[in-house]
Amino acid sequence: MPPAANVSTPTLSPPAPRMKAYPLDEFGPPEVMQQREVERPAPGPGEVLVRVVATSVNPVDYKLRSGEADFGLEAPAVLGYDVSGIVEQTGEGVERFGEGDAVFYTPEIDAQGSYAEYHVAEAAIVARKPTGLSHEEAAALPLAGCTAWQALFDRAILQAGQTVLVHGTGGVGLLAVQLAHAAGAEVVAVSSPTLTRQTAERGASRVIDYQSEDPAEVMQQAGVRAEVVLDTVGGDTLFESAGVAAPGADLVTIVESAEVPAGPLMPLNASVHFTMMQRRGATMRSLARFAERGLLRPAVADVLPLADVAEAHRRLESGGVPGKLVLRV
Asked: What was the pLDDT predicted at 96?
């Protein structure tokens, strides 16, 4: 009998790790986000794999989900653009972070967001979580905080002693009030009635209720002009602020605004900045320093389990939420 053939047994690769996530396969109502298991990402060179402890919901989330905003995002996709969590693994070349480090950051707007158990990010956009803040509190800071910081300090170059007029005290506006106050500016904020108290508590010396007061009229009667105007509302806000802007003022908007006429602004030599937040580790580290010194406190309206992400979208989209809705993973 001839000897049996030497047959090699193929080596099977272990299955890729899985994780729970809430992807959407199409754009539409909150219910398009459904939990399922997907492949867990792995960090490449210069990246970190983070176990997400908490994330939060921002207006851009529901605008992307509904199809109102584009940003080039295509389904299937996982939304979510705030992270506070623990470094699980680092990619080649990462030296700033190690396994077990508590970190926070705002992910790039792409198909792999943070409504998931794990997230991979470039280490360059990540910073260590502020000591003294829980993961739920830290998850309320990154996207809104970076937007406020860059609008005030990178675009307007805010200086101590200047007067800042902040239109809107939602996520970005309320953090801007705190940052400007901490930087030594005089802060006037235009707010809704439900947010006036916490806006004053966080550093605004004058809070104008837009439902019962005209901001321009209030400032003109007080003889106050703003060297910096931050618009988080849109529409005609910048145009209407021209009458209370100081000579050489910087007017910054983070939202789509109506056409800004040059007439009222040219005699002031004012500058208008249309700004889109950039993901930078340096900005995140600045926010962490302010938070650790007690100068920046996120307003968390509620903490929900990630399983309630659709409900969180419904609540934020309906308006009137006095702070950030955080999702515990």
From this structure: 96
CB 25 within 8 A of CB 297: no
pLDDT band at 10, cuts 50/70/90? Answer: low
Domain presence at residue 95: yes
Q: Rg of the Cα trace of the chain?
A: 23
pLDDT tens, position by position, 267-321:
788 898 999 999 999 999 999 999 999 999 999 999 999 999 999 999 999 988 9
Q: Domain holding 50: CATH number?
A: 3.90.180.10
Identify the CATH number of the domain in which residue 155 sits.
Answer: 3.40.50.720
**What pTM did the predictor assign?**
0.92
C-alpha span between 211 and 281 (Å, rounded): 38
229 vs 180, 206, 294, CA distance in Å?
11, 14, 25
- List the alpha helices (DSSP H) in the chain: 59-66, 135-138, 142-149, 171-182, 196-201, 215-222, 237-241, 281-292, 309-318
Residues 39-69: b if buried by 16+ CB within 10 A, e if exposed: ebbebeeebbbbebbbbbbbbebbebbeeee
One domain, residues 263 and 200? yes
Assigned token pair, 223: 């003889």
Strands 23-24 and 271-274: unpaired
- Tally helices (H) and strands (E) across the chain: 9, 17
The two tokens of residue 300 are 């968390």
Distance CA 213, CA 24 (A): 42
